Amino acid sequence: MRKLAVLLVLSSGTFAFAGVSISAPANGVTVSSPVQYVASASSSCSKGISAMGVYTGPGQLVYTSQGAKLNTLINLNPGVYNTVVEEWDNCGGASVTPVKITVGSGSQVSVSAPKPNSTVSSTVQYVASASSSCSKGVSAMGIYTAPGKLAYTSQGAQLNATLTLNAGVYDTVVEAWDNCGGASVAPVTITVGGTSTSGVFTNLQEQTGWNGYALLPPLYNICTSCTPSGPQATWSMTQNISSPSLSGKSSLMDIGGETVYSDILWNNHLIGNFSSQGMPDNNQTIVPSLHNFTYDVYFYVEEPSVSQALEFDINQFVGGYSYIWGHECRIAGGNEWDIWDNPSQTWHPTGIACKPLANAWNHLVLQVQRTSDNHILFQSITLNGVTSTLNYYEDPTTTTWYGVTINYQQDGNYQQTPYSVWLDKVNFTYW
Prior knowledge:
Blueprint: E1 2-9, E2 15-24, E3 30-32, E4 35-43, E5 49-57, E6 60-66, E7 69-74, E8 79-89, E9 94-104, E10 108-113, E11 118-120, E12 123-131, E13 138-146, E14 149-155, E15 158-164, E16 168-178, E17 183-192, E18 199-201, E19 210-215, E20 234-241, E21 250-256, E22 263-272, E23 292-301, E24 309-318, E25 321-330, E26 336-341, E27 346-353, E28 360-370, E29 376-383, E30 386-394, E31 397-398, E32 403-411, E33 419-430
Parallel strand pairs: 3-9, 11-17
Antiparallel strand pairs: 1-2, 2-4, 4-7, 5-6, 5-8, 8-9, 10-12, 12-15, 13-14, 13-16, 16-17, 18-33, 19-22, 20-21, 21-33, 22-32, 23-28, 23-33, 24-25, 24-32, 25-26, 25-31, 26-27, 28-29, 29-30
C-alpha cells in the first residue's frame, strides 16, 4: 500500500492536506489483466472528495468514480505501466499516488468465502486460493480489511482464516504474492452486522459425517433392512483415495446389488441437528440467518452411461419448513438436468444438457437461495465451466427437522450395473 500526502495551496490562500491510499495493486508488482485498482482518498477540505481516477499513462485517464473510494478492474495489455491514482476534492485541490506495474498473465486469486456484497456476522471466515504463471509458485496470501491494513497472512497458495470485525462496511481485499515478484488481488466488499453468518466447509469428501442408505423401487423410501453388503443393493464409500484425485484425498463411491433401479443416497448433516462440523446451533441463530448456498464438487466417472442418474441436493430445515433443492443429472434417461418439486414429489426437466465427461474430472457448481419471502429458488447450474441460469421458484413443505444438510446419490440402471464415482474438493458455502 502506498499513500502520498500532499500539502495543497488553494486559490483562497488556505491550506489543505490530501492523500491517496492504494491497497491494490502494490507498487512495482507484476499482475495479470484485468488489473484490480482499490484506493481511497482523504482531504482536509471541508467539502470532501469529489472524485477519483486512474491514469495508465501521462494524460490517459481511463477510469473515474465519484466520491472518496475507487474499486475497479482495468484491462491492460502486457507491458510496463507508470500508472497514477488521483483524487479531486471540492475545494479545487488534488493529490496523486503513482503505481508502477508490469502486466503479465496467468495469475489469479479465487475467493470462495465470504461472498462479495454479503452480510456476515462479526466472525468472518475467509477461504481463498491462488495460482500463478510464476514457475516458482505462490509465496503467500493475505487479507486487507482496509487500504494498508494487512490483517492476516499465510504461506502458500491456500488461505483459510477467521477474522473478528466490528459492525460496518468493509472493502476487503485478498492478495497473493508469487516467488517471481508478482501479485494479484480479489476485492470482497462485506457488511458486518446483524445476525447473518457466512462460511464454507471444504473437502467434505475426506471428512466424517457421511451416512449411506439404499432406496428401493417403487416407492424409493429408505430401506431400513438393507445393509451395504446387499443383496438388494450394495454400496460403499472409501475415503483418502490418491488416484484418481485432485486434492490427493478423493472418495470412492460404489453402487451395485440385485434389485434393478435401486439407488444409494449419501447424506451429511452440516449445521443443526446431528452436525458433523461441530455446529449444532443449539440456540437456533445460525440456520435462520442463512439464505444462500453453493454446492461445489468435482466428480470422476469412468463410463457415465452405466449410471441411471447422479443426484446432488441441498436441504435446509428451518421455521417448520423443509427447503429441498434437488438436482439430478439424468444420464441414462436422456442426458438432462432435472430439479425436484418437493410439494408434488416429482422431477421437472429443465432442458439443460448434462453430459459428464468419461474418464475425466467434471466440475459442478450449484447455486440456490431461500428467498426473503421463504420460497425455494433454483438459481444456476455450472458444469465444466458452462453456466445455465434457472431462476425457478418452488414452495417448501412442512417438517420438524432443523438444520442444513447435503446429499449425494447414485442411481442404478435397468441391470443395476455396478459402477464407481470418485468425489473430490467437495466444498459447501453458506451465507
